[in-house]
Amino acid sequence: MAHPELTLTEHRPFQTQRQDTWWLQPVAVLTGLGLFIIYATFRVFEGNHFIHGPYLSPFYSPLLFGLTDVAHSIEHSWFGEMPSWIPVFITPAVLILWAPLGFRFTCYYYRGAYYKAFWADPPSCTVSEPRKGYRGEHSFPLIIQNIHRYFLYVAIVIVGILAYDFWKALWFDDGNGGKTFGIGIGSIILGGNVILLGGYTFGCHSLRHLVGGIVDLLSKAPVRRNIYNCVSCLNRKHMLWAWMSLTWVGLSDLYVRIVATTGWQDYITF
Question: How far is CA 158 from CA 53, 97, 123, 153, 198, in A?
Fold first, then answer.
């Protein structure tokens, strides 16, 4: 039985025969990612209020260099004070921003999301694009997508560093020059950040291929099979991990900034 071919009679941007609210998802992604980008850009170039007591904002971790006008940042930094020859607009966050940004930007889930929301290539299934041609991943900036696996290695290291930051967030000044163990609201928030970022990072598609994709028969490699199953379990909810971790890392930075600027008393139990 012959079926009539359904085609668009003319090409216009976002033209479609769909009757559902297909635009809701790209608009939601555009709004969510857009708000995060605006806030993160402000915080990264603000260069202040990123440390309070044992709490270090994940936007500034690892803290390679400290700043003289940010209390306790130099003593918590890896290499001391920021060199004078580095321009003022290069904050400690700018020095490490490329790693988490590169990992998110090249993520297999995120690229599918912002292709629709930002690039509109296409805005949704069976919806026409606003441009005549598609350059794909053979030209800048989308060609960067092809090095996602290398950003993964750096992202794993950063999760480890953030876990260490969480450990440090459990030790508070005892008033006598020493440290005492405690759990504050900030400790819980930074701990949750590690869990969510870990779930997102260790559920990465590239990691799944790395641990099991090079084996022809997983049943003959039980260790790889178990790791592969664990990564696959996280990978099934990769979108959820991606959004939860993105939201939580922003909230973690916001909390540190609030306690650093307002002097708000962080509730600590010992």
Answer: 21, 11, 33, 9, 10
